[in-house]
Amino acid sequence: MTSALESPDAVTARAPAKVNLELFVGPLREDGFHSLSTVYQAVGIHDEVTAARADEWGCTVSGRDAERVPTNDSNLAIQAARALAERTGGQDPVHLSIHKEIPVAGGMAGGSADAAAALLACNALWETDLSREDLDAIAADIGSDVPFLLHGGTAVGSGRGELVTAVLAKGRYHWVFVPCTGSGLSTPTVYEAFDARTAGSEITDPVPSAALMSALRTGDPLELAPVLDNDLQPDAVGLQPQIGEIIEAAMGFGALAAIVSGSGPTVAILAGSTEGAIDVAVALTASGVAGDILRATGPVHGAHVLPTARLL
Ligand code: C5P
Predict the structure, then answer these.
(1) Number of domains in the chain
(2) Could you tell me if the CB of 144 is within 6 A of ligand 1?
(3) Looking at residues 137-155, what average pLDDT do you find?
(4) For 69, what's the count of Cα atoms within 13 Å in the CB-facing half-sphere?
(5) Comparing C-alpha atoms, which of 263, 5, 11, 243 is closest to residue 112?
(6) Does the predicted model carry a pTM greater than 0.70?
(7) Nearest ligand 1 atom, CA 188
(8) From the CB of 143, is ligand 1 less than 6 Å away?
(9) Measured between alpha carbons, how far is 240 from 131 in angstroms, rounded to an integer?
(10) Start-end of H helices in 55-200
């Protein structure tokens, strides 16, 4: 009885999506990644992962875009669970049930969120005594965005995005997201387009902009809007021109700013208030420019374990 209470058979964790308020791309490194300076913000769209003790490793996916998520070993949540099991000297298998709200392959780190949630869920289920640093190191091996999704809030990402430092940010920001997943842009393809476009020009290691840092300290979306920036935007728009049309339409409908989120194709639209966000979302839908629209505020907390419901 006591041990059943201490060791649940299943643990659920949830992790948020992210938007990049700023994404500066530096030189291509020897390991095939680009050095980055980015400012992430976690936003209130979440995936949930339940890790349950099982006879064999497995994974099922439900919710938004579920059919587009692999359930084999290429699934980032499975990779995270297996990496944690290996790091802690072998663990019994788990079945991961992933419930998605974050658009798949959208530049909002949906797969990385699943990895972050799986790490926390399995870590709690297996009752490992890993430190936060150990978890961050496993997270970084899974993907550049995973450590930030454990962290949450608003933070600078450096290195290839995996080195996370909190920034002083005030305020609550209202976002509208248009997934724009039509043809699907893969992250490597967008980075390759960036390399081709910038070939021959000298690229130095980027640093966060003082303008963005001071805008975040005001907490005022009117200050933040003009300093949002993404070096990959021309490449994402070049590969998928519909993104440019959505950005233009959003600005015409009163958005404070509209940028590509990460490597795209999701367009992140900043509004001044809840009403402003609803207005832009309704106008985009009514005009037929965008069908699928999500709204969220940020910043929100990083990945966290949910209280375990117990059957009496
Ligand atoms: O780490 P993540 O899974 O997000 O990276 C996916 C791909 O995006 C990498 O294999 C690489 O092609 C590209 N990338 C990059 N530089 C980064 C992050 C990602 O070139 N800093």
Answers:
(1) 1
(2) yes
(3) 97
(4) 30
(5) 263
(6) yes
(7) 12
(8) yes
(9) 42
(10) 76-87, 110-125, 132-142, 146-151, 187-198
Collapsing DSSP states into helix, strand and coil, what is residue 267? strand
Q: Are 8 and 115 in contact (CB under 8 A)?
A: no
Q: Which SS3 state, helix, strand or coil, does residue 75 take?
A: coil
Query: What's the pLDDT tens digit per position in 96-123?
Result: 999 999 998 888 999 999 999 999 999 9
Sequence-distant (6+) residues with CB within 8 A of 253 are 279, 280, 283, 284, 287
Among 22, 23, 7, 21, CA closest to 194: 23
Residues tagged active-site: 18, 145
Q: Whose CA is closest to atom 15 on ligand 1?
A: 33
Domain of residue 197 covers 1-312
Q: How far is the CA of 14 from the centre of ligand 1 (A)?
A: 23
Residue 295 Cβ inside 6 Å of ligand 1? The answer reads no
Distance 34 CA to ligand 1 centre (A): 7
Residue among 232, 222, 141 at smallest CA distance from 186: 232
Ligand 1 pocket residue status of 191, Cβ below 6 Å:
yes
Cβ of 36 closer than 6 Å to ligand 1, yes or no, is yes
Please work out, in degrees rounded to the nearest 5, the angle formed at the alpha carbon of residue 159 by the alpha carbons of 157 and 162. Answer: 55
Q: How far apart are CA 40 and CA 52, in angstroms?
A: 31
Say yes or no: CB of residue 198 within 6 Å of ligand 1.
no
CATH number reported for the structural domain that contains residue 254 in this entry? 3.30.230.10
**Distance, CA 131 to ligand 1 centroid (Å)?**
26
- Of all protein residues, the one whose alpha carbon is nearest to atom 14 of ligand 1 is 33
pLDDT tens profile 258-304? 999 999 999 999 999 999 999 999 999 999 988 889 999 999 999 99
